[in-house]
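Internal tracking record. Fields below are filled automatically when a chain is submitted to the structure queue. Please do not edit lines marked as system-generated. If the sequence contains nonstandard residues, flag them in the REMARKS field before resubmitting.
Queue: standard
Priority: normal
Entity type: single polypeptide chain
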Amino acid sequence: MGMVTLGYDGSPESEAVAVWAAEKAKREGKALRVVYAWEWSPYSLVLKDAKTERQWVENLPRQAASKLAQRYKGLKVTGERIDGPPADALITHCHDSEMVVLGSRALSGPRGFLVGSVAQSVAARSDRPVALVRVPTRPPDGTKKGSSPIPLAERREVLLGVDGTADSDSLFAVAFGEAAQRGQALRVVHGWRLPGIAAVDCGLLRDERKAELVRKEEKWLDGVIQPWAEKFPEMKVIKDAHLGSLAEYLVHVSHQASLLVVGRHEQKHELVGTLLGHVTHAVMHHAQAPVIVVPEQ
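SYSTEM-GENERATED OUTPUT FOLLOWS
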């Protein structure tokens, strides 16, 4: 039995994320581990209420686990407090998990979603797939709280974004697996751009040459999808070779998806460590569906 790990802090937002994680674990026959990362401050040991605070910290994930176990009969749920800075603690303690689930908070208008520093750090550094679940807290103008163009439960596609650079087996395995578990179609979106000066002015390309480039990209997409489609013959796979920005297009079509899966290429910076690519960063903050970030081996 595999395991899903939920990063939990007791906030109203994390309660909603807990439901998403529990339903995923239940659907896939996996265990769910609820963890609360806490870094003890030296002065907390001498405060009069330190004992009460410690008890609260210890009880928080256990109580959340108990509630989820009561709600989802048959689901194996455990709760524990882990020590250390939250991002570091989550990364260290989740090597035995198949996925880490964290939350992000919706903002109004085009500002998208607030992905906290812990979630960003875990998504950038974890060797496990990281799911960022959207929790609407501020509705767009003129809409009811929690509303969206298409309710999440009614969305019938899983989106996979690929850019043709280092799209790995791990990325496709997660996307096809998620779509299969949901019984939904998988839309594989490949973003590409015209070469050279034609990227500035499409009018400089003859129609024949442009059509040739389109066919080339579509053929490449057919090739990377075929072995996975053969493994999942019952699944409806939609091929979507998009001319233009992959990040912008994924954000645009995410309102119709139940889930969006993207890869994380290894990009190192000598001062700040591993960085998220621009596509992953964009969808984390602006997509209208939960996002799974998959480290590409």
